[in-house]
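Quick one, tokens below. Sequence please?
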């Protein structure tokens, strides 16, 4: 799948960004990670700190008040925050997920209205695609949006919506033409105070407990027609295009979890002594660490390669039809990065728990939380089984 682009290398600015975000995460994010996991409450104090550091939505272009970080820099931010706390890393990740549809297809009016509040930290943005009976088969959704003069009236339910309840804005996919299949789905922006919009109870989850996950309900929810994102009927195409970009952020999140677990386990086995010597002196342990580190680094290279393609694709989209052509193999690389990095995160965190022995199984040590958090990266934004379907289709389409 080589499209002729040179191998990835961090710039000095990106390396400096990594160092600064790692220091920030160690000082501000990590101390609150266990508490957020235990309480299941969104860490508003950490969010405020992210906003002060301008890390809550680094991808938003400068034209809309954002930092204008490229896709690789955004991945680095998410990776380093996830190394300390997976739930907190969902703040920049989900802000990107919710806003990429606007960046790809939204009108300038929509961008000017909704991107600056996210860039300033006044609001967060979530993404609503899945439904109770439409998960992997997202095109089977039944949430309806019926045009009524200058408005759309929404009815239905969305499920598994990350940061629901703390986000103020939502990109919502709904059926506008039930006879057109996937071509009858449109995308809209819904605000949390829109009449007819409400939330379900928070889900009780295995991990990422500091990030709320809830259902969205639309009961004759009336929104202005100006909140349509792109053309009517283009919603499913927009949704898939957005996921091509944001699967990279899940890969970065998984990478950060794996790196955090590897770092902690490495430090632990160096200090822990058994049979009169450090556990790290045993060859079996060394082999485990070597395999963990090898897979983490492979995941990093694949993730950054996918991020580079995401950046090129976003630049091409921003330039319009007359802009630079070609986006590389973004769909393949984003699926591959998400799939591989999340599988690595699950494997590495499981090995980290094993290396800590009984201590790895208790909440006094962070690898137990990392292992629980890692599991979701294999599931959301498309299960890893679906990612393999996507990759196979890309290989076989000729």
């Amino acid at each position: 799948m080589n499209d002729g682009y040179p191998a990835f290398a961090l710039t000095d600015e990106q390396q400096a960004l990594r160092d600064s975000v790692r220091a920030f995460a160690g000082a501000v994010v990590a101390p609150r990670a266990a508490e957020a996991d235990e309480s299941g409450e969104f860490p508003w104090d950490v969010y405020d700190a992210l906003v002060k550091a301008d890390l809550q939505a680094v991808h938003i272009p400068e034209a809309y008040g954002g930092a204008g970080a490229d896709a690789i820099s955004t991945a680095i931010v998410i990776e380093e925050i996830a190394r300390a706390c997976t739930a907190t890393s969902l703040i920049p990740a989900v802000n990107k997920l919710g806003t990429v549809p606007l960046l790809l297809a939204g009108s300038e009016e929509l961008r000017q209205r909704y991107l600056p509040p996210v860039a300033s930290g006044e609001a967060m943005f979530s993404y609503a695609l899945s439904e109770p009976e439409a998960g992997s088969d997202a095109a089977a959704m039944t949430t309806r949006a019926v045009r009524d003069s200058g408005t759309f009236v929404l009815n239905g339910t969305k499920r598994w919506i990350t940061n629901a309840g703390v986000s103020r804005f939502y990109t919502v996919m709904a059926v506008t033409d039930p006879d057109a299949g996937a071509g009858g789905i449109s995308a809209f922006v819904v605000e949390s105070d829109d009449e007819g919009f409400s939330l379900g109870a928070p889900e009780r989850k295995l991990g990422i407990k500091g990030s709320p996950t809830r259902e969205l309900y639309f009961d004759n929810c009336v929104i202005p027609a100006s909140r349509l994102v792109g053309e009517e009927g283009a919603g499913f195409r927009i949704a898939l295009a957005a996921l091509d970009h944001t699967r990279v952020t899940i890969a970065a999140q998984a990478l950060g979890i794996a790196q955090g677990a590897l770092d902690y386990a490495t430090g632990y086995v160096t200090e822990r002594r058994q049979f009169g010597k450090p556990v790290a002196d045993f060859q079996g342990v060394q082999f485990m660490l070597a395999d963990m580190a090898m897979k983490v680094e492979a995941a990093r290279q694949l993730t950054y390669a996918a991020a580079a393609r995401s950046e090129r694709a976003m630049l091409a989209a921003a330039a319009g039809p007359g802009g630079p052509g070609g986006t590389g193999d973004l769909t393949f690389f984003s699926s591959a990065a998400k799939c591989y990095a999340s599988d690595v995160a699950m494997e590495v965190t499981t090995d980290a728990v094993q290396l800590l022995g009984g201590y790895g199984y208790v909440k006094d040590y962070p690898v137990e939380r990392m292992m629980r958090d890692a599991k979701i990266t294999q599931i959301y934004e498309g299960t890893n089984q679906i990612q393999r379907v996507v990759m196979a289709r890309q290989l076989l389409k000729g």
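The beta strands are 125-128, 144-148, 151-162, 169-175, 185-191, 197-199, 213-224, 228-229, 273-274, 277-278. The chain has ten helices and ten strands.
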